[in-house]
Specification:
Blueprint (H helix, E strand, L loop, with lengths): L38 E2 L2 E2 L2 H15 L7 E5 L6 H12 L5 E5 L2 H4 L4 H11 L1 E22 L9 E7 L4 E6 L1 H9 L6 E6 L5 E7 L15 E2 L7 E11 H9 L6 H4 L7 H17 L2 E5 L1 E5 L6 H10 L7 E6 L3 E3 L6 E3 L4 H4 L2 E5 L5 H14 L6 H13 L2 H17 L7 H10 L3 H10 L9 H14 L1
Parallel strand pairs: 3-14, 3-17, 4-13, 9-10, 13-14
Antiparallel strand pairs: 1-2, 5-6, 5-8, 5-11, 5-12, 6-7, 8-9, 15-16
Helix pairs in contact: 1-2, 11-12, 11-13, 12-13, 12-14, 13-14
Length: about 475
Amino acid sequence: MTKIPSLQEIKDITRTERIGAHSHIRGLGLDDRLEPRDVSQGMVGQLKARKAAGIIVKMIKEGKITGRAILIAGQPGTGKTAIAMGMAQEFGPETPFTMISASEIFSLEMSKTEALTQAIRKSIGVRIKEETEIIEGEVVEIQIERPTQSMGAKQGKITMKTTDMETVYNIGQKMIDSLSKEKIGIGDVIKIEKATGKITKTGKSYTHRQDYDSIGPGETYIECPSGELQKTQELVHTVTLHEIDVINSRTQGFLALFAGDIGEIKAEIREQIDSKLSEWKDQGKAEIISGVLFVDETHMLDIECFSFLNRALENEIAPIVIMASNRGISKIRGTEYVSPHGMPLDLLDRLLIISTDPYSSDDIKKIISIRCEEEDVEIHPQALDLLTNIAVSTSLRYGIQLIIAADLVSKKRKADLVNVDDIRKVYELFVDVKRSTQFLQEFQDSFMFHEKNNQNNNHNDNEKDK
């Protein structure tokens, strides 16, 4: 006899969510006057940088700037990417936001300029407006005439009304099937698109509600529409320029967006699209939405990419480009010239530069506390102090990475809190950059292809030549 498992024996299936490095960021943490709060929306410290970023966000939302570039510059681990993620949260879903790493440009199977062009056009939205004829009203009666022969098509009539008028419409097989699929009945308020025949149920009329009716989660009672049955409705579609490019450059149309293999797009197609959009813009049918392109690790771009970006910012349709770099005075990739942040001076002259400062120990403690809450880790106050001291002496990133490792150690001993011993154990198991460098310097001769002795030999040879 088959045994049926009890509820206690059935394991709970929980939905797992990946916790990213910046999943705790909800915004820039500013008030209505754009003044930064000390700790808000996952952001800690960096008050000047957050306020500057908030001003940029406000100007972009109001459409006061376009075709500009901003550089977020600072030491590693000072929250540059976190500020960019906070800006993305502030923009909302209506503003296109594209995030790429500079090294991606060189790993794609297309030219560098094509990869940058696609990234730029992904960051420019188009709000297309169109008018369509609809029939909106309350269903009074549905009559279906079934054919005498089984092979014949169904026909029928539907009676619809508003508070001002009532009309009978003839319907065919396709419309009858749609009514049956949407489970349309008497008293339902529906919309019918005349061009496509699509039926949308918006709710049920209050006149057909009874006191004993139970309202389900998908049931909504609304007023009967007023005015004419046939109306003109404005529909708004928001897409990006890149999506329009792909649809018009591939034979499979919009399905190419899901294929992944987009490849390069001809310049002639883009010129035709830009010309058509300019025409629609003059007619009031389309509206250009200037979005944001965030390029992380910008110093990894070479001189050709910088020149292309410099020219692209001068176009009539251009997004806001936000860059981030942790380099000081270094070589521009592809040249022997040295420049601040590893970027050409003519491009730097175009940028609004936001600088980030190193975090204080109090800020680091608050960040680690927020990350513990995000990763659902309970930590003892003394362990939090020890982890803060470790992050101050090594790096914030290293300290954050020890959180989940210490939590696993505490669970291994079936504890509810991460204590000091758990932090010490993972600190001994996983070394930071400083200890790893010290180990390499002590045991350099034991590793293959070490450069230390070779450099000393070359130095001695040079001394002998002199």
